[in-house]
Amino acid sequence: MNEPLTRHLRPIRSFVLREGRLTPGQQRAFDELWPRFGIGVDDDLDWPEGQTLDLPSLFGNDHPVTLEIGFGNGDSLAEMAAAAPERNFVGIEVHRPGVGHLLIKIEELGLTNLRVIRKDAVQVLKTALPAASLDRVQLFFPDPWHKKRHHKRRILQPDFVELLARVIRPGGHFHAATDWQNYAEHMMAVLSTTSELFENSAGPGNYTPRPDDRPLTKFEQRGHRLGHGVWDLIFKRR
């Protein structure tokens, strides 16, 4: 008897793992710095079932926690952590060169309030974090999957918003930014349909001017010079 087809179907992921070669410095970072600043193992993107993070124990304090999903090379996240020692930060990224780069920045800046996870962010939101454990979640410039047939791979979907609502404390915030207008409109539409969970800090249907605490990335600066727009959305957890 054939097994049900659904048993072999993999969940749709919002990323494609494009692994580049690690520089010697990035490899050293994994060898020497990951045990200090990394959470869990770095060679498996699936979060272990039944394991939950204890964030106060992880940082040694109960400061509010900001989680950033998809931090790229980590420069802006490290800058934010350096500027706000009264807060704790957790970054999630699947691409090893970016993770290695951030580990080096943590060492260079002497940061003690930043930890790194190399896992599927959806799984982390589902099982790794206790309810209402985060003060803020950031999603800056995620892959827009601009072809219509790929829109199902965009990370910001109704199910994802429900996961955000589980882990963000009442009064906490979700902050997203994109340089694709179509994706900005998609984000606004999805978030605006969850008014029982989140409210738009800028008012219904409005985008938020870039706050000072979100550093400009090099990519974003180049986009500004070329006349590209950037849209920020900040929604408050009810």
* Coarse structural class: alpha/beta
Distance between the termini: 49 Å
Strands, count: 8
Largest sheet report:
8 strands, mixed
What would you call the shape? globular
Helix content: 25-40%
User: Which runs of at least 5 residues are low in confidence (pLDDT < 50)?
Assistant: 1-10
Mean pLDDT: 90
User: Secondary-structure element sequence?
Assistant: HEHEHEHEHEHEHEHE
Cα-atom Rg, whole angstroms?
18 Å
> Strand arrangement, largest sheet?
1-4-3-2-5-6-8-7
Continuous helix count: 8
Tell me the strand percentage band: 15-25%
Key phrases:
eight-stranded mixed β-sheet; alpha/beta; 8 strands; 8 helices; 238 residues
Structure report:
The protein is an alpha/beta fold and 238 residues long. The model is unreliable at 1-10 (pLDDT under 50). The protein is globular and about 45 Å long. The longest helix is centred in the N-terminal third of the chain and has 14 residues, at 24-37. α1 packs across α4 and α3 packs parallel to α4 (96-109). It contains 8 helices and 8 strands; from the N terminus they run αβαβαβαβαβαβαβαβ. It has helices at 24-37, 55-59, 75-83, 96-109, 121-128, 158-167, 181-192, 218-225; strands at 38-39, 65-69, 88-92, 114-117, 134-140, 168-178, 198-200, 231-237. An 8-stranded mixed beta sheet has the order 1-4-3-2-5-6-8-7, with helices on both faces. Helix content is 34%, strand content 18%. α4 links the parallel β3 (88-92) and β4.
